[in-house]
Structures are given as C-alpha cells and as structure tokens.
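Entry 14. Ran structure prediction on the chain below.
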Amino acid sequence: MTQHDRLLIIDFGSQVTQLIARRLRELNVYCEIHPYQNVTDAFLAEFAPKAVIFSGGPDTVTRKDAPRPPVSVYELGVPVLGICYGQQVMMQQLGGQVEGGKISGGGGTAEFGRAFVTPAGQPLALLEGLFADGREQVWMSHGDHVSKIAPGFEVFGTSPNAPFAITADTNRNFYAVQFHPEVHHTPNGKILYENFVRLAGFTGDWTMGAYRDDAIAKIREQVGDKKVICGLSGGVDSSVAAVLIHEAIGDQLTCVFVDHGLLRQNEAEEVVSMFRDNYNIPLIHADEKELFLGELDGVSDPETKRKIIGRLFIDVFQKHANAIEGAEFLAQGTLYPDVIESVSFSGGPSVTIKSHHNVGGLPEKMGLKLVEPLRELFKDEVRALGRELGLPDNFIGRHPFPGPGLAIRCPGEITREKLEILRKADAVYIDQIRKHGLYDDIWQAFVAILPVRTVGVMGDGRTYDYACALRAVTSVDGMTADYFPFSHEFLGETATRIINEVQGINRVTYDITSKPPGTIEWE
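Output, structure tokens:
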C-alpha cells in the first residue's frame, strides 16, 4: 500500500497492541504492526513511515538485552509516540533514566489500573481537547517508571505515581505517555491519537473505496492470466474475498462450496443462490452430505468429530480443485489479526494460517500459491469492504459459524434425527432474535441439542424428548465473551415457540456461562 501515508507500530509485546491499530484505522489512517526484532534500518528505509508508535510491552528496559528499536528511528525526521514501555525505551535511548519496580527487582512504585492525569507546563498540541475537567482518566499498567526524562523533553502531564505521565520534545516531534490511550479504560484516548496523526500530517486517505481499487490492481498483477480457486464457506470473510477477486479477474475464479450436511436450515441454498444469481461466479456445489454424515454416524467424541470433518473436507476440496485445469492460486480469507499472530512478538504459537481456516492444509499439499486480499484488514473493515462491494446486508452481518458446523452443537452421538431437530430449533431461535431487533447486538447465537431426554407433558400425554440449550454472547473478537442478557419475557416466548414448533424437544434452557471459563461453542 505504498501510495498511502503509512504509520508504523513497533510491537514490544503488549497484549493490546492491536487496539492501537484499531484506533488508527478508525481515523482512516493506514498502519501496520511489526515486531521490534523485524524493524531494522533497511526495513525503516523501505517502509518509509510518516510516523511511528512504540507499543507497550512486558519486559523491563533496565535489563541489558531488553527489546529496543533501532536508533535510526529517531533520525527519520517523523513524529514518534511512545506508549508505556515505549515511553521508557524512548527515554532510556535518548539519555533519560528508568527505575525498575518491584516486579523487575527495583524499588520503584508500580501502577496498575485506573489513574488520573493532570496537565503540567505549557499547552501541547498532542493534548488539544483533553483536560476539559482539569484531569483525564487513564489506564496505567507498568511496573517500571521514568525517573529522569531525556534532554530536550518537558513534562506536560502527571499522575500521583507517574510524575512523567506525559512528556514531549516538541522540537523533534517526540511524544511519550506512561498510560495506554488505546484501551477503553482511557475514555478520551481517541482524541490523543487524532491529535497525533494530525500533527504527523495524515490526510485520512485509508478508505474502503481506495482499498478496493488497490486490492483489485494487486490481484490482477499477482494472478495474471492464471486461474484461482476459492473455498467458499458462506461466511463473511470468504464471501467478501470471493466477490473482490471475481471483480478483479472474472471467470478466472472458481469457488468450491462443500455442503457437508452440517449446515443450518436452508444455508446451502442461500449461499449457492446468492453467488450464482447475484454475482454469476463459477461455483462448484459439492454435495457431500452422505460422505460426511456416513462417517460421523454414531461418533460422540468431539475431537474425533473434528478430525473426521477436517480430513474429509480436504479430500473433497482437493478432488474438485484438481478438476479445474490451470489453477495455480488458492484464495483464502486470511485477516490482519491472523497475520499479526503469525509474526507475533514472542515468535508466537501460530506460524501458519489458523487451523480453523477451511483450507489451511491445502496450499503446500497441492502446490498452490496463496491469494489473500483481506490480509491487511480487521473484521469490521472486511464488513465495510463487503458493503463497498455491494454484498447483501444479511451476508455482511452474519454471525460467525464454525467450520465443523452443527457437529459441535450436537454434544454426544451425531444422528440425522438430532441434526434435523437442531436445525429447526435454531431457525426458530434466530427468527425470534431478528423479530426482536437483537441480531446485530449479538456476536453469536445458536441452539445446542443436549445428549439427554427429559420427561414432559403435552396436552394429556407424556413426552420423552430432547432438551436443548440456547446460547447467545456478546464479544469484540471471540477471545472473551459474556452471555447476552435476554429478558425473561423473550426467553419464555422463545421456549414456547421451540417446544410448540419443533417436534422432538420438550425442554429449553439458557446458557449463562461466560468465556472464560466456558467456550462459546459447546464442543
């Protein structure tokens, strides 16, 4: 994306570095996160950032081999902002001092949690619009602290335990804060980032319209006249990737949609009709229900289910992909968080595409080269691109759906009868959520059919049918989640509908487990 103004975030291992990028992307500023060990003099020269931000991190700069950026970063002539550990490493490299806290073996005072910063010194452009009430709530999370600021710096904000909470060398456009403006516990942190990118001269040219044009040009340059295959799941990421690539290369793209018999009610028909009717994308609808359900019949162990589904998916996808003559590229909906994780600060546990990607094992096995047009985007940006491309709202806003499908919402033995009951109950539940206008407020919602039967009474007769659990959670990224606080009226109405409309269920429960300790899915 060399035609855009670019901001470089040097990652020192903070758990919230991605939030810095999110704040900047919301301001239409293009940025990339790179671990400090990858940022060399040569990298800086090639990347040519318009500004640089140092993230926080878990290490202590008092340690001899602690992470540091190259000294040349201070010679670029661009604004630099250091956050928490980033402030400390900046101070130390430029001639200041950092005192270790108890965690790192020193006697300094640590500071964790909410704090209040008050202004000091002259007005600072970085702080314009802040301190309207005479102080700002911020989020501190540091064991060490700056004990002496570097030459050329002045103090512009203090807190009870951080006398150098905000410092700056205005002549060189170097800024440093001890707190984390990227987290929501610093309510006005966005203002600080707005001021920083304005000081750096960013014009806010990072838009989905611009990204769309750039991505199409890059796809055409990469693919040439070769053919591309795309594993289409019907989810947001693969759908947006497919439509974008089709806009770039037309019939050189073929999508393969594998129907494994574990989809929600009418899902296969909806996905296939949308792509065939609205986009006229060459599409292979691989109806492999009998293959998958046959091998899963009677299987109850969750890991065994996943392994069977993963193995069969690869076999089926490869069978159909091999029939496409001249295919040299495989399209995947890899997102920027996947890329960040694969080159994480610590080397990371994930050095390849995440295992939940449907075609994760295929590129090397089949000798295909990857096309990943979404690898610079976050999830909400993918949805924005989908709107730019004209995808229907009901596809852009769809809840996440797991690769193994309904198999992991059917704890215990899988049978076709239970899957059919589950589909019907899930359809009623989602219909209820939509009718009450709650779908977009929920990250994910579904029904799980439980491996128990319970006694019930319907009319004058006794029933002995399945129990089910409703699940609905709110989340930002799926890593943590809270249950959605439905009203008792909603739950009662939904339970009544499911029991009346779905033969085979006579008891409905609601799962109020958060993540952690639970998971979002049941298996």
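Confidence is low (pLDDT under 50) at residues 344-361. Will compare against last week's run tomorrow.
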